[in-house]
Automatic annotation (TrEMBL):
Keywords: Membrane, Transmembrane, Transmembrane helix. The keyword Transmembrane applies. The keyword Glycoprotein does not apply. The chain crosses the membrane at residues 21-47. This is Protein LONG AFTER FAR-RED 3 isoform X3.
Length: 588
């Protein structure tokens, strides 16, 4: 019973008592005076919602229905909770959801201090969980040379020339996001930019993060020459004369990256805040952060970011979104959780280093790279799993996915039954039967729908029509085989944009195409939303606290621009109007 109801009941009781003269007038007056005084005291801070949580602890009786700080009403709420998928209103208290249902069903939770947010019929969904990001690199890239979307060599060169003009002598020029498929497929060369960068070493990563271009000054500084050998798990691309072309793949990138000055602590802290603000504009309230780790690199950078950046942000109350870091396996606070460990099985399709059973159609001698020896990967997985940690392995090619699935099956058999939720990151290209193995083993397929937009043309060139058409981005097959789909972006490889990714998963129409790429693998709006919410929360062991708008869970939600669920379900088109974390507006 709330205080307002208690007051009404008490008033009725006083009138009944006085009418029947059960009590002397002076006692009745005393009771009335006490209640009026209490209400007079309570009325002073009625508009201060934090007051109610304090006063309840002082009351000598239990209030059956807690009081809401915020009620969201006049909405089309998709909850991602199968027990009640849709509602029109939601009550929130102290950052968590009290109740979801019709507006009339929440009236006992409303009091004079409750804020009521009328969203005018807009669609409301749970806060999006991006299942795969590199948050600090994303924030750093936002102020570096941006090459995403560049479709001509001249524009590529122009942007580097402009950066060189604005750079001090000897300073590194850093950037990324280029995709050679956009200008016809020819890979960039150091010779493209050597003449315009004589005084500045340059490093430009491909959009997938598995290949980069260095100018000749950077190659010279790294000691990369004609006689240099390819490192394990990496390749130095050479021209017809055997000279390094400037391109380095996977672990070979460390030859250059080891020379690039580390971003300062302050730069990384600013990058975290910059990235977090940007994520909120896209409705992202939680991210699974895979840090700065890549094949061949030391894991020290991830540990440094944890201590220097994330713990700083948490202790100084600067965290804006919830972050699960692929380390350890516990909660540091309500903002930061340690998620487990990550490893790599192969590279990427665009760089020709994804591992396949059959050779690349355009490179008959190339099957891709096994970035980590299978026995090493097996031992690492077994040890981490035995310690109770969640394991996530990067696998893109069909052979890499089969390898990881076999390792997971072996480790589960050896270590025994437990709720381990093994993950495969990307799972882009699968051999026949692999989708069923995902489901049988309950392996999480952590996929990034927008990758298919960038890979569409190159997949057919590199794999041939049969393999590209029937083995790539098998979202529907994974779903029907009971695998858990968790959607993400892989930002800054592609933009962090859940609504865009949801539309991609629904439509599967790459740029310049009239028809869908393998339309039988499309998913519905509800399936895509779940993959960005409740399934994404399940994939990182946070489903008891996040992922759906259910009583007791954190009140992270997004208000969308559309007021028609039917149109949204048909076209997947909407934008973010507002983002709320713990019931408080975080954007705009």
């Amino acid at each position: 019973m709330d205080l307002e109801t208690l007051w009404r009941a008490s008033a009725r009781e006083r009138e009944r008592e006085r009418a029947q003269s059960f009590l002397p007038m002076d006692i009745s007056a005393v009771i009335s005076t006490i209640i009026v005084l209490v209400l007079a005291v309570l009325s002073l801070p009625l508009l201060n919602t934090s007051y109610w949580s304090n006063i309840r602890s002082l009351l000598p009786f239990t209030i059956v229905s807690p009081l809401a700080d915020l009620v969201v009403k006049n909405a089309t709420i998709y909850t991602s909770d199968a027990s009640l998928p849709f509602a029109d209103s939601m009550a929130i208290r102290s950052g968590r959801i009290l109740r979801v249902g019709s507006y009339s069903s929440l009236q006992d939770l409303v009091h004079y201090g409750t804020e009521e947010l009328d969203v005018g019929g807009k669609v409301v969904v749970p806060g999006f969980i991006d299942s795969h990001v590199h948050l600090i690199p994303g924030g750093l890239q936002m102020v570096r040379v941006e090459l995403r979307g560049v479709s001509q060599k001249d524009e590529f060169v122009r942007r580097i020339k402009e950066a060189a003009r604005n750079s001090k002598h000897g300073c590194w020029i850093l950037g990324g996001g280029w995709n050679n498929d956009l200008w016809g497929g020819a890979l960039p060369l150091a010779s493209w930019i050597d003449e315009i960068t004589p005084d500045n070493p340059v490093w430009l990563t491909r959009m997938d993060g598995h290949m980069g271009l260095a100018n000749s000054l950077a190659l010279k500084a790294a000691g990369v020459t004609k006689s240099s050998e390819d490192p394990n798990g990496g390749t130095i691309i050479r021209n017809s004369a055997g000279e390094p072309s400037g391109l380095l793949i996977d672990s070979a990138m460390e030859l250059i990256l080891a020379l690039i000055p580390e971003a300062s602590v302050d730069e990384r802290r600013v990058a975290l805040l910059r990235a977090s603000r940007y994520a909120l504009t896209r409705g992202v309230t939680t991210v699974i952060d895979f840090g700065r780790y890549f094949p061949g690199a030391s894991m020290e950078s991830s540990w440094e970011d944890l201590s220097d950046v994330f713990q700083w942000a948490d202790s100084s109350r600067k965290m804006m979104i919830r972050d699960l870091i692929r380390k350890g396996g516990a909660s540091m606070s309500e903002w930061i959780h340690y998620g487990g460990v990550k490893a790599f099985a192969d590279g990427s399709l665009g760089s020709g280093s994804a591992l396949f059973h059959e050779p690349y159609a355009d490179e008959p001698q190339n099957h891709g790279l096994c970035v980590m020896e299978s026995d090493v990967l097996l031992n690492m997985t077994a040890a981490a799993d035995k310690s109770g940690l969640q394991v996530a392995v990067h696998a893109i090619g069909d052979k890499a996915n089969d390898l990881v699935l076999d390792i997971y099956e072996s480790v589960a058999s050896t270590n025994g039954v437990r709720d381990r939720r093994f993950r495969i990151e990307h799972a882009q290209h699968l051999a026949p039967g692999a989708a069923a193995h995902f489901g049988q083993q309950r392996v999480v397929a952590s996929v990034q729908p927008d990758h298919l937009l960038d890979d569409a043309d190159s997949a057919f060139k590199k794999l041939g029509e049969e393999r590209a058409q029937h083995g790539s981005y098998l979202f529907r097959s994974l779903q029907e085989n009971k695998a858990r789909l968790a959607f993400g972006s892989d930002w800054p490889v592609v933009d962090v944009n859940p609504l865009g990714s949801i539309r991609t998963a629904m439509k599967r129409i790459p740029p310049g195409w009239e028809n869908a790429w393998n339309p039988s693998e499309r998913v519905t709006l509800v399936e895509a939303l779940d993959a960005y919410t409740i399934s994404a929360a399940y994939a990182c062991f946070l489903d008891k606290h996040l992922g759906s708008l259910s009583p007791g869970k954190l009140a992270d939600f997004v208000i969308l621009s559309t007021d028609s669920w039917d149109e949204f379900a048909a076209e997947g088109s909407a934008s973010v109007i507002a983002t709320y974390l713990g019931g408080a507006k975080a954007y705009p």
